Amino acid sequence: MSRGGRKASIPPGDWQPPERLVITESECSVFFVEEKGRRSKIYDFTKLQIRVGMQQWLARSFARATGPTSGVKRVSAAEGLWVAVQIFAAYLTKVDPPLLQPAHVTAAQIKESLLAVPLGSRKTHVHRMRAIFRADRELSAEARNAILHGRLPAYESKVQPYSLDEYQKLMTAVRHDIRVARDRIYEGRELLSAYRRGDLGLPRRRNHIEKTGRVLDILDRTGDLPRRVTPSEPQGGIPAWVGALGGAHDLVSRLTLTLTRTETAAFCLMLVDLTSENFGTIGEWPAAHFRPDGDLGGSALALVDGVKPRRGPSLEFMVTPLEDLPPSLADVLQTEDDDKHLFRSPFRVYQLLLDLTEFVRRHSGGTHAICYPNVRAQEGLAWTHGTSRNNLVTWALGHGFRPAKKDRNGKVPISDSPDEVPRDVNEQAVTSTDMGLSVNVHRLRRTVLERGGKPVAHTRETFHNYLRTSRPAAERGRVVMREALEKEVAKARIVQEIPVLTEEFLARAAQDPERAAADVGLDTETFARLISGEQDAVLVGCTDPENSPVTGPGKPCGASFLDDCLRCENARALPHQLAVQVETHSRLRHLQRDLDPRLWSHRHAESFDRLSNLLRQYTAAERADARERVTLAERRLVDDLINGRLDLR
Question: Is-above-0.90 flag for pTM?
Fold first, then answer.
């Protein structure tokens, strides 16, 4: 327990929780208190310049949206909803005649109120309106649908993921601080062990290393620096010989056996990068965890309990698996440099964090993984757990980075979640002086989520919202779509461009076979076999059966006559094949009426479309004539083709 805390106690038997929603003749207000009890605020709805009935309705809706079972856990999130209420109330004041009850609100008025919001803030406002009125039953069904349904305005998030260069700069600084903290603490432990073994020499005036070891010994045993009680300093002052070593603040910062508050911020950033979890959630991780592997070798795994209050009471408690390196990176484990795989394994970083903060938990009795001493305490050392934006700002400035801009109230937003920070605050805006790379945990988490390609601690829909509002993700999506469309266009062109050797062309070929073969890109011998029907593949002729794109060069072609030959680059259509093509096309059209639509589409839709494209290159008279001269043998051939008997031979 910290020095500033208090013991837990049971409330008196007659204790009642404060009334959240107060509606009387003269008062209409909602009392909101954060889940952890740190801050609270009263929202006075009588200040809204609308009729009393409408004030009370908005108060009831606001109370439901910010209640204990909602995902609104902080004053900053409640403030965002309050802004939406004020905007909507301001619109209602302009409605003539004035509305007396919520049932009088129409869908047209709801839509007009949403359109009155500037385009840049409209999506945020719609989100808040949906949160406020999702459980409302006083509006008409049409008015509720106008709020809860419909497409949201498209926008590009102001918080974009880091570029590769920015990401490398940030994480290089993070890894540097973790290494420095680890080496400093391990050196302090070695110095303490040497002092206790008596290897630092006798206490002398100039033996500063022995004095340093003595300070570390007292610090490790008592959790405080050596102190001297005098009448002028009854709380215990720092002796002169300790002050000569650098003073209380310098000693604890330089020689402490645990992490400093800025180093805990570095560990949080490292774990955000490795796990994709929220910065605030990681800051509250416990030291206690479960090891399913039993620490008996093999793949190491630790299960850590986490809390994300804004997910709501039923989902806020979650378990985060911290794994060692996956088998795909087994070669990294075989390297001699331990640091190379330390910073790729969330399990190893977490284990290192617990090791470096053990000193604080031993003296404070705390249970948090992230904890550090408060070296500025007036009465000895105090212990603090978790981390905050203030620590992150200090860390960023110490590395020449810039923190996120303060909000309109002059405060740095505590939450790193876009749903907990007031959406009308530009999170990504920076100060007028360019101090370097911006450190924003929301940007870092977006970077990691996009790199991982899967949602973490949120729904898949939320993850898709991240991607839709991300500029790099949108650009990558455009590239993928362009490549896919170009591939489909190329396939379509191949289908449409299957050469058809017409009767006129074959007549010219009879007079000059060599020139005709050169016109279609074939040698004379292959061209002769093709027009003679020797290389027929039921529906088309094949120019090179030994060089099939399906089975590869040098092997007999094993392609399906119905499905593959129509999309093969070796295919050529000849007039004597038209009757079989027309009969096959007719059979497939009849099957479309007889088979289940999904089954027909799966089996025959592509072949039917390809045949349709091929037959369009003939005239209607040519197709009709071919249909009249289909022989019994050709009908049997088509029957074997469609039933797959030809592919089994």
Answer: no
